[in-house]
Write a structure and sequence with these properties.
Layout: H1 17-39, E1 46-48, H2 51-63, E2 68-75, E3 90-102, E4 105-110, E5 112-115, E6 118-121, E7 123-124, E8 128-130, E9 151-153, E10 159-161
Antiparallel strand pairs: 1-8, 2-3, 3-4, 3-7, 5-6, 9-10
């Protein structure tokens, strides 16, 4: 009797603190400072979800045949009424995906499901954005509060530390 084993398609890897610091610092200097100036307030730097939310979404995605997740970068409308403090800020949207063979090769295609409102992409959003919801900061910063700490010289506009 032959056994078929499906191997997971793994594209990521564990990284160290130096790597995380570097990519966050690069993002702040190359994208975040410009985004913040354009929207007139500090743009978000992260989106947070609980482990339980992530597990629930992954279970739902698997139930609909997903074998992966895609994270889309997005931005809330400038007049976002549901949470005005998030208006204009960037966010992440998680979408369930399924690997599919196409004429162009293997693609991770977004999954669509039937709901009471019709056909919709299987997606999850509304993580806790920082800023504005970064929680209290103390004078005694711990290592986990210092990831990507950056000082940006904005010339005649002053210095920015984040």
């Amino acid at each position: 009797m032959a056994t078929i084993t499906k191997t997971a398609n793994r594209v990521g890897k564990y990284v160290d603190t130096a790597h995380v610091d570097n990519v966050i610092r690069n993002y702040k200097k190359e994208r975040w400072v410009h985004n913040s100036e354009r929207i007139g307030k500090e743009d978000s730097l992260s989106a947070w979800w609980s482990i339980e939310e992530m597990e629930d979404f992954i279970a739902e995605a698997k139930m609909h045949g997903a074998d992966g997740l895609k994270f889309y970068f997005g931005a809330y409308d400038t007049d976002h009424k549901e949470m005005p403090e998030y208006a204009g800020r960037q966010t992440l949207v998680m979408v369930g995906t399924k690997e599919a063979q196409t004429a162009l090769g293997v693609k991770n295609k977004d999954i669509y499901v039937q709901t009471e409102k019709g056909t919709n992409v299987l997606a999850y959003n509304r993580g806790q954005l920082c800023p504005p919801d970064c929680g209290p900061r103390t004078g005694d910063l711990t290592d986990d509060e210092c990831l990507g700490i950056t000082i940006i010289d904005r010339g005649d506009k002053g210095m920015l530390v984040f």
